[in-house]
Amino acid sequence: MTSLITSRRELLAGPLLAALFAGLHSEAARAAGVDPAMTMITPPEQIPWGPIGNLPPNAVEAAPLFGKTSDPGQYFVLIRWHPGFMSAPHWYETDRLCIVLSGTWWCASGEDFAPEATVPVTPGSFVRRVARTPHYDGAKKTDKEPAIIAISGVGPMSLHLNDPSKPSWREV
Asked: What is the 8-class DSSP label of residue 67?
């Protein structure tokens, strides 16, 4: 009978001690801080925003955060469309996975540019741009703030315009 009681105590105490140890261990891990060789943090004010190609100033900007769109492998970039500008219809060789972080991103599919046909994509929304399919997007002039979109894909990435005789952007 004694061994049965001991076994029950051990069965009950074991998980409690394990939880206590795990709690103490996680507190020690949090107290240790962040090792920049293991966890790289970039505060918003240090995100490296810059112009994209030959687009007009204050139209659209990019902030490469991981990899390069021009290199093989995964990349992660932020795009900031300012109100009044959209891309011309274009496509890419590989899928692009997008999440709207702020503002309203106006998206459409197809070869013909029709900004009135775009649909509003709000913060928290996920958009998958399917490889080799034409699309266009941006922020309308009536928007109060830029649209910021997080985009991940596999490079090298090349933009293919549906009509290369026209600019890669449109003012709307």
From this structure: S
83 neighbors 143 (Cβ within 8 angstroms): yes
Averaged pLDDT, 76-81: 98
Instruction: Give me 3's structure tokens.
Output: 């061994």
Cα within 13 Å of Cα(70), Cβ side: 2
DSSP-assigned states of every residue in 99-112: EEEES-EEEEESSS
Residues 92 and 13 in one domain: no
Q: What is the pTM of this model?
A: 0.79
Q: Please, which residues bridge with residue 171 across strands?
A: 85
**Domain CATH for 154:** 2.60.120.10
- Domain of 122 in residue numbering reads as 44-171
Q: Is 19 in the same domain as 64?
A: no
- Identify whether residues 21 and 48 lie together within a single domain: no
Residues 143/103, Cβ–Cβ less than 8 Å: yes
Handedness of CA 38, 64, 156, 95 (dihedral sign): positive
Tally of domains in the chain: 2
